[in-house]
Write a structure and sequence with these properties.
The chain is built from 10 helices and 14 strands. By secondary structure, it is of the alpha/beta class. The chain has a 6-stranded mixed sheet, with helices on both faces. A 4-stranded antiparallel sheet has the order 2-1-4-5. It is elongated and about 75 Å long.
Length: about 300
């Protein structure tokens, strides 16, 4: 079995005036939860549509579950679960009827429908035209998860869901991972990705700028440290410490923004009597914003 659930090589989609994705080399390992990050318009949905053969690339190749995304697209679709960013449904069908329809298209079972509906607090026997946007999203999740696919491709999957249902979604992702399936999760909701992902890829203006473990990315983020000294500190005394990007002095309290290792800062603090240190943990949002700061993200 191929160790990769998704592989792309120099994958590109040129819409003419706008580049969808450019020279995308991406590998998603089997059994991992991979977060795909970027603002609206960065190329996330274009990537997914290329993987699913919903649009054709200008150049390059993609493989999904070891199969060619174009030549083997029908075989691929029976083995994956997909939630698109914009759900389109047959309005006169009930949620249950729609799930049965998708099951027949895939040629798979739908044994998990009732259990999933109960967990997501969804009434499957109402017509879709009567559903709220949140309930439509729940139907999208049920049809994606119901046949226990090898790979889930989820484009902004928690849109419109209330916080309690979001938590149940996170539990579903954990269960999927525990049985060895793979999740490709596209989102601009950074805390969501940080909560569930093993690795993340960040795409900017159609180009993949980084792929890294979540923990490693956070380790490189800017950290905000509040240091309390016994006596007032001379302004500027910490500005020259390696890694310090910014220091604000207010008597005996100094707020420091530092990048990378804190070793040099800790050694510099030894020259004074420190009464307290408050560290504000770096998060994925800080990394993301730093990468996009000053960039045009609307391509």
């Amino acid at each position: 079995m191929n160790e990769f659930a998704i592989e792309t090589s120099a994958l590109a989609k040129d819409y003419g005036k706008v580049i969808g994705v450019s020279d995308l080399d991406l590998v998603v390992r089997r059994g991992e939860v991979f977060g795909y990050l970027g603002p609206n318009g960065a190329g996330k949905t274009t990537t997914i549509r290329l993987l699913l053969d919903l649009i054709h690339p200008t150049s390059g190749t993609a493989r999904v579950l070891g199969l060619d995304s174009h030549a083997d697209s029908l075989a691929i679709r029976s083995r994956i679960g997909y939630v698109p960013g914009e759900l389109a449904m047959y309005e006169d069908l009930t949620g249950r009827e729609l799930c049965r329809y998708f099951s027949s298209l895939r040629g798979t079972g739908a044994a998990g429908v009732d259990s999933l509906a109960e967990r997501l607090d969804l009434d499957l026997d109402r017509p879709i035209k009567e559903y709220s946007s949140g309930n439509r999203q729940k139907v999208g999740l049920v049809q994606a998860f119901m046949h226990e696919p090898e790979l889930l491709i989820l484009d902004e999957p928690t849109t419109g869901l209330d916080p309690l249902v979001q938590q149940e979604f996170y539990r579903l992702i954990a269960e999927v991972k525990s049985r060895g399936a793979t999740v490709f999760l596209s989102s601009h909701i950074l805390p969501e990705v940080e909560h569930v992902a093993d690795r993340v890829g960040i795409i900017r203006n159609g180009r993949l700028v980084v792929v890294e473990e979540v923990a490693s990315l956070k380790a490189r983020a800017l950290r905000r440290i509040e240091i309390h000294f016994e006596d007032p500190v001379v302004p500027g005394s910490l500005d020259v410490v390696p890694g310090v990007r910014e220091a604000t002095y207010n008597g005996s309290v100094v707020n420091v923004v530092i990048e990378g290792s804190m070793d040099s800062l800790i050694k510099a603090l030894a020259a004074n009597t420190v009464t307290n240190i408050v560290s504000h943990e770096a998060d994925l949002e800080e990394v993301f914003l730093e990468m996009y700061r000053g960039e045009d993200t609307h391509a």
